[in-house]
Amino acid sequence: MLSLTTGHILDSWARLTPERIAVIDAATDTAWSYRDLAHACDRTAARLHDLGVKSGDVIAYVSDERLNTVALWYALGKIGASWCPLNPRATVDDWIRQITHAEASLVIYSETFEPSVKRLPVRSVDLGHAPRDAADPVSWPVTAHWPDRAGILYTSGTTGSPKGAWHSHRSLWGWNTSVLCSLGIGGSDRFLNPYPLYHMGGIGFTLAAIQAGATTVLATPFDAQATIEYVPRYDITVTIMVPTMVQALLEQPSPDRQTLLNGHWRHLVTTSAPLLEDTRQGIRREWPTVRLSVLYSATEAVFTVASDHHGTSSLTVGRPAFGMDIRIRTEDGRPAAPGQAGTIYTRGISLFEGYHRAPDQFHAIDGGWLTCFDTGYLTADGDLVLVDRAADLINSGGEKISSLEIENILLSHPAIKEAGVVGLPDPYWGERIHAVIVPRVPDLHESDLYPYLTQHLPRYKWPKSWAFVPELPKTGSGKILKRALRQENPRGR
């Protein structure tokens, strides 16, 4: 029986709708049809085979070549190897930790990253802009199977430890199907995706749109003014964005905001962070004819989807997504009553396959149920209301950032005695990184720490506000009370 691996899906659309546009790189205005994408995939698969890549291998990549990156996903899928994206903004040390943990055997890169990649301890190859001869009519067979691993994505957990989430071809099909059916996306849609192609948003939503036979416009990195131009230019019907991106659009001049309605834009989907009420009201005010949906999802699974008619709370994230189920458990593991807060669990077709080399470390899957340790409750009508995210995980601009990682770096500075890092509500970032410091020396200022941070952390993980205090609030056992840091919010600078 034919199993719908990523390679089978692409080949099917290349046969059925060869001339339909599959992907567009908005930065270069380059478009590939489904036939073009399939040919690029096959040429890349042939080149990877020449390099010795085989089924079961893990191949890392760091690239700013958007269309070739999409072709790489499908080429690895045909061979039966797995992709492992590296964050281009991370440090080389971060890359080394990730590829070591993932046991990657090869790193694919584009020319921009050659100086950094050459410092890695594994073989690296620049596939170039045109693997093999673009005229080569190579056709590469699909050797992968539905249960085979397709890709591993790293998320920052509350422990700050590496957390590689595996998706198989089967779970990707389920993740994509849940998104498509929940949001009503089909082959006639033109889908704007501003997520970076190392993020589950960039990968998952692009794979989902291709699974539907739709057109994806890759508009990364996000730029508000460019987005205002892209939506009418490419006749976009569906946009999916982090709420901070939407807020940036709302801050553009009124005539520019209104040009978004000049085409067939019908659906705005927000995900990756809570949608603040001010942003929600701004959407309704500026684009009243556009359907608004909130997708509560993670790298590991799609949880729920909420449309405007779901619930009255701004933190309502809706009903279980297509093919998914939701349960709330109290601290003692019992099912929670309607309105009773507890830990959110989900199971269903979009559930990932598990964590790499640490299936028990994170306690995420319990008898087929996944939790990201978020807290919420179900209303009597069956809507999920999100009370809080994972306790110490900071969700800033759609990036999930480990507070423990930042604290460890700060505490290694000789002038810092203690440090607590939390996320505070921010109208633009969703949460901003806030550091509360107990200094060892008088008159310590955050500017004194920036040279040190430059050496140890990528800039997007730097604190955006600071407070310097004589002591941190703690429990009787000496544990820092981060809840108190959030509530007291010492006046920072």
Please outline the major beta sheet.
13 strands, mixed
Structural class of the helices, strands and pairings? Answer: alpha/beta
User: What would you call the shape?
Assistant: globular
Counted by DSSP, the helix tally is 14
CA-atom Rg in angstroms: 23 Å
Give the strand content. 25-35%
What is the share of helical residues?
25-40%
* Secondary structure tally: strands: 27
Give the low-confidence spans.
none
Summarize the structure in words:
There is one protein chain. With 493 residues, the chain is α/β, with parallel strands linked by helices. Helices cover 28% and strands 27% of the residues. The protein has a 13-stranded mixed beta sheet with strand order 2-1-10-9-11-12-13-14-15-22-21-17-16. The chain has a four-stranded parallel beta sheet with strand order 4-3-5-6, covered by helices on one side. Strands 7-8-18 form a three-stranded antiparallel beta sheet. The relative contact order is 0.09.
Write the layout of secondary structure elements.
Blueprint: H1 6-16, E1 21-25, E2 30-33, H2 34-50, E3 58-62, H3 66-79, E4 82-85, H4 92-102, E5 106-109, H5 114-117, E6 124-126, E7 149-154, E8 164-168, H6 169-183, E9 190-193, H7 200-211, E10 215-218, H8 224-233, E11 238-241, H9 243-250, H10 254-258, E12 267-271, H11 277-286, E13 291-297, E14 302-307, E15 316-320, E16 324-329, E17 342-348, E18 354-355, E19 365-366, E20 369-370, E21 375-378, E22 384-388, E23 393-396, E24 399-402, H12 403-411, E25 416-426, E26 430-439, H13 450-456, E27 465-468, H14 482-488
Parallel strand pairs: 1-10, 3-4, 3-5, 5-6, 9-10, 9-11, 11-12, 12-13, 26-27
Antiparallel strand pairs: 1-2, 7-8, 8-18, 13-14, 14-15, 15-22, 16-17, 17-21, 19-20, 21-22, 23-24, 25-26
Helix pairs in contact: 1-2, 1-3, 2-3, 6-7, 8-9, 9-11
